[in-house]
Write a structure and sequence with these properties.
Blueprint lengths: L1 E3 L5 E3 L11 H4 L16 H7 L17 H13 L21 H8 L1 H4 L11 H18 L3 E3 L5 H18 L8 E5 L5 H8 L3 E5 L9 H7 L4 E6 L12 H10 L3 E6 L11 H4 L3 E4 L1 H4 L14 E3 L11 E4 L5 E4 L15 H37 L15 E4 L1 H5 L5 H10 L6 E2 L8 E4 L7 H15 L3 H6 L11 H6 L12
Parallel strand pairs: 4-5, 4-6, 6-7, 7-8
Antiparallel strand pairs: 1-2, 3-9, 8-9, 10-11, 12-14, 13-14
Helix pairs in contact: 4-13, 6-13, 7-8, 13-16
Bound molecules: pyridoxal-5'-phosphate.
């Protein structure tokens, strides 16, 4: 197994073994505890008085009893069985898994940020409110928008927020009932149509042309005064820049619709161009992809939504605002759609993104995008001739290759390539997405990988392409879990520790 080691050189990494790790219950031993507090300080009579008798346990909770030392060893062993962004390249197209600088961990671990209760009054949280308003204005400058909400806790939550804003905007013009369709290209991320449906709209799909971009004639044929808006990501999910974006914006605005920008791919354009300049009205950002907020395991993320001036009074509230005298206050926008998340969103994810923006500065953010685009194009060139590349022209921060040529020759399928990469010490790329590319391998090397790591990644992908179908099907052979029976796992999922193996 190889992985990128010190200096970016490929090294042998004893990543994972197949020995089963016992569960905490199996490690449990009666009477062991991981804490060593002599007393909670609450006298027994007070505890009895404070906790209603009906809520008191009759017997101790059935939890594992384990010492701190054994607990830490167990967790550390488990962590060594995971692939992570800290361990090696993670070229997961669309989802952007890049290395997150430790500086950002340090910044948000500070007590002044981490130990503040979200219910603390504004008089005690002025520093936090200054941070949030500074972050908001930086995000507006980056996207070319007028105001933003920081509440949504993920990209998909940002999408729903954006659609609710769209609905409120059309509703105020008395057009909510008539405008019931939202257009989405056929290359779009799955959350887009899901959010449209959740927002109470109907999805109208727009086909891509043979260059992988929105087909302008097909778009024109679908535009009417019942269209509420269009959702686009630019670069799109093929990693291609929608060059006709100004014409698209003109056409959608022409029928009274709004343009929604899915900002999950923002790390391709930082400091180069802005959704606001392209004509978008609503933008969500995935801080957990673009601005060094880790998002493995589902979060917590942050999906702020920024809007143009004409939509700002609908934003979720309360919002932190500078009062003009050096203090900050929570303000409810005039026609607010209400809360989209409790408190102020995932505040520490927001602070982490702010530390990343500050550490890079404007020119640093521009370099982030330049490197992301350069790396993706370099890798695309390296794979030419080995894999099919359906849209083989300059891409942005990611590109889509295809294993169709290998499959046709009786070799590997995209899934086999992905599993083999795990054996080579790399995370697998996104497979079978976008749906319009057969045997898709969607690769995003990100800006954080060195030229040596990229060369090792390209080399591994080229070698894998020469494998026989049998070798591909056997992979992964080096991870703690081999190829799972996905159909069985979906239909007969047994997530409990004490499940019988034949359950
Ligand atoms: C293009 C695109 N849009 C939206 C999302 C949804 O973001 P989240 O996973 O934060 O909900 C993703 C996530 O991968 C994405 O790639």
């Amino acid at each position: 197994m190889t992985a990128a080691g010190p200096g970016g050189k490929a090294t042998s990494a004893p990543l994972m073994g197949r020995d089963p790790e016992p569960t905490l219950f199996e490690l449990s031993s009666p009477g062991r505890v991981a804490s060593n507090f002599r007393t909670t300080g609450v006298p027994e009579w007070a505890a009895e008085e404070l906790v209603p008798a009906a809520h008191l346990r009759e017997a101790p909770a059935p939890i594992a009893e384990i010492s701190e030392r054994d607990l830490v060893a167990h967790m550390t062993r488990l962590s060594h069985r995971q692939f992570s962004v800290d361990l090696g390249a993670y070229p997961l197209g669309s989802c952007t898994m890049k290395y997150n600088p430790k500086l950002c961990d340090d910044a948000v671990a500070r007590a002044g940020l981490a130990d503040v209760h979200p219910a603390a009054p504004a008089s005690l949280t002025q520093g936090w409110m200054a941070l949030l308003t500074d972050l908001e204005s930086a995000l507006c400058r980056i996207t070319g928008m007028a105001a933003a909400t920081l509440q949504p806790p993920a990209g998909a939550a940002g999408e729903l927020t954006g659609l609710l804003l769209m609905r409120a905007f059309h509703g105020a013009a008395g057009e909510d009932r008539r405008r019931r369709r939202v257009l989405i290209p056929d290359s779009a991320h799955g959350t887009n149509p899901a959010s449209v449906t959740l927002g109470g709209y109907e999805v109208t799909q727009v086909p891509s042309d043979d260059r992988g971009c929105v087909d302008l004639d097909a778009l024109a044929a679908r535009l009417d005064d019942d269209v509420a808006g269009i959702m686009l990501t630019n670069p799109n999910t093929l990693g291609l820049f929608e060059e006709d974006i100004v014409a698209i914006a003109g056409a959608v605005h022409g029928v009274g619709g709004l343009l929604y920008y899915d900002g999950a791919n923002l790390n391709a354009i930082l400091g180069v161009t802005r959704p606001g300049d392209m004509g978008f009205d609503i933008v969500h950002m995935n801080l957990h992809k673009t601005f060094a907020v880790p998002h493995g395991g589902g979060g917590p993320g942050a999906g702020p939504v920024a809007v143009t001036e004409r939509l700002s009074s609908y934003l979720p509230g309360p919002r932190p605002e500078a009062a003009g005298d050096g203090t900050y206050a929570w303000v409810e926008p005039e026609r607010s759609i209400g809360r989209i998340h409790s408190w102020h969103g995932n505040a520490l994810a927001l602070a982490r993104a702010w530390s990343y923006i500050l550490a890079n500065g404007g020119d640093g953010l521009r370099r982030v995008s330049d490197a992301a685009v350069l790396n993706a194009n370099w890798l695309r060139h390296q794979l030419r001739g080995t894999y099919d590349i359906p849209y083989d022209r300059p891409c942005m921060h990611e590109f889509v290759a295809s294993a169709t040529n290998l499959k046709r020759a009786g070799g590997l399928r995209a899934l086999d390539v992905a599993k083999r990469m795990l054996e080579e010490g790399f995370h697998a790329p996104t497979t079978y997405f976008p749906l319009i590319v057969e045997e898709a391998l969607m690769i995003e090397p990100t800006e954080t990988e060195s030229p040596q790591t990229l060369a090792a990644l390209a080399q591994a992908l080229r070698e894998i392409a020469g494998d026989t179908a049998e070798e591909g099907h056997a992979a992964p052979r080096t991870s703690p879990v081999g190829r799972v029976d996905e159909a069985r796992a979906a239909r007969r999922l047994v997530p409990t520790w004490d499940a019988r193996s034949d359950a």
